[in-house]
């Protein structure tokens, strides 16, 4: 039997700022190219900070055919089976520092992720914009009322103010890491939860070679994802640190970046 052109190759795309345009829409060009890639035997999935429920609305246009990396690397979710295959939760002790952040920095938004739901402990204009963009309805609760385990916490605020919050949290000797998914979102995660570490797990689950993996991203939370793949690609609108870590740079997210990368694969311009 003739081997399909993209058989054994895995393409992993960040969503916001990479696969989706500035209006959080998937272009027809990207969707068509991705279906061509999958029809040619390719494996495709997303690696996103979103929870699984915020990805589902795109699946009619996104030909995801292997498990997805969600919660910024804190989980791997199989949409076919409707369940998590792997997860790395936050230590419950993180609640103490987060409570202190709320006291010291009034006005900050705290969003806690558990069980496919987002819990709004405190809100501001940044959390409201987030809710509208990702089309989810949050549960409003006090921090101590949020069920455990927690996948991640988003601290949403003015980017200049968040830098002070970041410095404050560095004073705690607790097992959590901080990463910016967007300038207004500072995320707290399990130290072992990165998109890169989750990609390494996914590669093992799929039984493929790292050299056959292409990843795409735009922000600081994508650096490990870019480094773990055989070929890491930054979109033109990416953070400068991500561009420095990438092997290649493609067009921006408003110019059908995924379609351009797939055309490179088809032309043999990306060695796999």
What does this molecule look like?
Helices cover 32% and strands 22% of the residues. By secondary structure, it is an alpha/beta fold. The strands form 3 sheets. Strands 8-7-6-9-11-10 form a 6-stranded mixed beta sheet, covered by helices on one side. It has a 5-stranded parallel beta sheet with strand order 2-1-12-13-14. Strands 3-4-5 form a 3-stranded antiparallel beta sheet, covered by helices on one side. Helix 2 (28-39) packs parallel to helix 10. It starts with 9 loop residues before the first strand and ends in a 6-residue tail after the last helix.
Write the layout of secondary structure elements.
Layout: E1 10-13, H1 15-19, H2 28-39, E2 43-46, H3 53-56, E3 68-70, E4 75-78, E5 83-87, H4 95-104, E6 109-114, E7 117-122, H5 125-134, E8 139-140, E9 152-156, H6 159-169, E10 177-182, E11 185-189, H7 195-206, E12 213-217, H8 223-228, E13 231-234, H9 240-245, E14 248-249, H10 257-266
Parallel strand pairs: 1-2, 1-12, 7-8, 12-13, 13-14
Antiparallel strand pairs: 3-4, 4-5, 6-7, 6-9, 9-11, 10-11
Tell the overall outline: globular
Strand order of the largest sheet: 8-7-6-9-11-10
SSE topology string: EHHEHEEEHEEHEEHEEHEHEHEH
Distance between the termini: 21 Å
Mean pLDDT: 96
Helix content: 25-40%
- Poorly predicted regions are none
Largest sheet data: 6 strands, mixed
Structural class, by secondary structure, is alpha/beta
Secondary structure: number of strands: 14
> DSSP strand (E) fraction?
15-25%
- Helical stretch tally: 10
Q: How much is the radius of gyration in Å? A: 18 Å
